[in-house]
Amino acid sequence: MRFRDRIDAAAHLAGALGSWRGSHPLVLAIPRGAVPMGRAIADALHGDFDVVLVRKLGAPFSPEFAVGAVDETGWVYLAPHARQAGAGADYIERERTEQLRTLRRRRSAYTPHRAPIDPAGRVVIVVDDGLATGATMIAALHAVRARGPARLVCAVPVAAPDSLEAVRPLADDVICLYAPEDFDAVGRFYEDFGQIEDDEVIRILSRPPQAAPA
């Protein structure tokens, strides 16, 4: 199974999430890749849209490989393989500090004139464009759960099977369209997996929601 691009993946996910249409869900995207997807899903479900800010902690000498993740409060999820990847306590603290700086810069740029939408008491759908290690999704679900949603949903188009199992205990529902045993990288399941830049995130977040039908 391959998707043309993130919007195609979002259309498929919106179909799988159709039971939440009418509940006015809050869709939270993990920046930056999932932001176009989250906006499209929120519009399809007639819900609200925002971002949940988390950052992966990259491995020493291999920053694209996550050994954990951090949320805006500074809470850290550390993956079981972190020590094997050479990420000692001092390294983790340095990486945490650096990624927190990035999160603060992004919050200031993405939503400078408002607070994040409160998820308390709501159906909340956390969206990413795929799960590789699952670290950022774990941090995102932890961050949202701490704020008291009525129901917490994890939604992704594609995932590594072991990462999918790792996130299941953290959500009330997990929606994944494809979890192949030969998973190796999220981008392999998209024909177009181009980089999403900050200016596109800002533009999408500033766009008014699509009106629900009367």
Low-confidence stretches: none
Number of strands: 8
The CATH topology of the largest domain: Rossmann fold
Fraction of residues in helices? Answer: 25-40%
In CATH, the architecture of the largest domain is: 3-Layer(aba) Sandwich
Distance between the termini: 36 Å
* Main sheet summary: 5 strands, parallel
Strand content: 15-25%
> Shape from CA axes?
globular
**Integer-rounded radius of gyration:** 16 Å
Q: What's the helix count?
A: 6
State the secondary-structure class: alpha/beta
Mean pLDDT: 95
SSE order, as H and E? HEHEEEEHEHEHEH
* Order of strands, widest sheet: 2-1-6-7-8
Task: Tell me the domain tally.
Answer: 2
CATH domain class of the largest domain: Alpha Beta
Describe the structure in your own words.
This protein has helices spanning 6-16, 35-45, 89-110, 135-145, 161-167, 198-206; strands spanning 26-29, 48-51, 54-59, 62-71, 76-78, 123-127, 151-158, 173-178. It starts with 5 loop residues before the first helix and ends in an 8-residue tail after the last helix. With 214 residues, the protein is α/β, with parallel strands linked by helices. Strand 7 (151-158), helix 5 (161-167) and strand 8 (173-178) form a beta-alpha-beta unit. The strands form two sheets. A five-stranded parallel β-sheet has the order 2-1-6-7-8, with helices on both faces. It has a three-stranded antiparallel β-sheet with strand order 3-4-5. Helix 1 (6-16) packs parallel to helix 2.
